């Protein structure tokens, strides 16, 4: 019976998220066709995420937003266990550019929007990865922050333990000489698991912003230490949040 109710709830969530996106798609098109407006896609993202989560009864909780200066560019680095992670950054404090896997571009309508406003990458190709990295820096310009999932996809086989981080996010922060913000997403993998036919669970979606880490004066030799520091911060928070949940 419980599994049947989950299937009904999952079907409702799909209708809500897809239906709202179709309604909002004309607004994305308006933004897409004017490059100077690309940074305003965050407004439509917030509308989509807020209304969708409200209609499916998922509450949200944000911690650490006081660390974020909306006038400052950042590279946001988060753990990645669920497709819901992309929706989470619809609540980012500022306009962001995502770097996502190339398969996202194949999703009808959404893929067109994502490819035009953000960056898709085929990580199996070093050439494509390099070009995607350069495009991400270009799309950031001077007023958009970057969202990267440094695991390079949903790769962990021991969730909530993360896979090893790749270098891209940390290289971007050093090149731009902007701070990195570690972000912990402790619940998305439980709400929307990475399964072939996932069933959605209704629970609070939490998002933890950690204190920004300066990259001022750092160079590429500092990438390994920076990568390890961010990994440890997110990993420790994942353990803390999960332990708290089951107390």
UniProtKB/TrEMBL annotation:
The chain crosses the membrane at residues 9-31. GO terms for molecular function: 1-acylglycerol-3-phosphate O-acyltransferase activity. The keyword Transmembrane applies. Keywords: Acyltransferase, Membrane, Transferase, Transmembrane, Transmembrane helix. Pathway: Lipid metabolism. Pfam families: Acyltransferase. Residues 74-188 form the Phospholipid/glycerol acyltransferase domain. One of its GO terms (biological process) is phosphatidic acid biosynthetic process. It comes from the Bacteria. This is Lysophospholipid acyltransferase family protein. The lineage of its organism: Bacteria, Pseudomonadati, Bacteroidota, Cytophagia, Cytophagales.
